[in-house]
Amino acid sequence: MNETVGMAAAYNDKPDVYFGEGRHDYIAQLPPNTNAKILEIGCGNGSTGALALQAGKCSDYIGVEIFPPAAKVAEGRLTKVHIGNVEDMPLPYPEEHFDALILSEVLEHLVDPYLLLSGLVRKVKPSGLVMASSPNISHWRILRNLISGKFEYQDKGPMDRTHLRWFTPESFRRMFEDAGVEVLSVGPVAPPRGKARLAAKILGSGFEHLLFSQVSLIGRRT
């Protein structure tokens, strides 16, 4: 319990927006289903779940959040919120219970995301949606810093000091495949624009990962 409290305290200095950016892109991926059940790990203040419920994409939206102040706000928006560290929390739902699983910018904060993901995927119905995102450690800015001998933690971004794990698009894909997910797409959270878009065309598909600041994955449980 004390360890969980200590981990939650690490988020005390985060601005409110850190816990409250709804994922409109994920809501767009969800089929209209007023009977669907959705599980989100790291639900923040419940912004994404509120969008899903308002859009008629589900009847039950269950969230898990480690930071109590954000979770308390989410409780007023979602069907149910479990407050605590998901790695230490047995979730009271059977296998094949949920129609979709959302993990937005959360796996990088976990001690063993590989083990947790396998268990979470089993709670999703066969062919149920799995959507996740995470910072991309192979972004060109991070590689430039590594070449310069720099590996410095920051208050936000890919090198956020609360991150415990890092992924490339390929390692992110492999983690989900190993957990029993058929990966349908892996790409940037937001498509490159301006100079980055031009660079993507020049580099070609073999190097486009250098321009992803965040990786977005869409898949289905096998």
Automatic annotation (TrEMBL):
UniProt-listed Pfam families: Methyltransf_23
Keywords: Methyltransferase, Transferase
Cleavable signal peptide: none
Coiled-coil region: none
A single GO molecular function term of this UniProt record: methyltransferase activity
UniProt-listed InterPro entries: SAM-dependent_MTases_sf
GO biological process, any: methylation
Domain of life: Bacteria
Protein's name in the database: 2-polyprenyl-3-methyl-5-hydroxy-6-metoxy-1, 4-benzoquinol methylase
Organism: Novosphingobium hassiacum
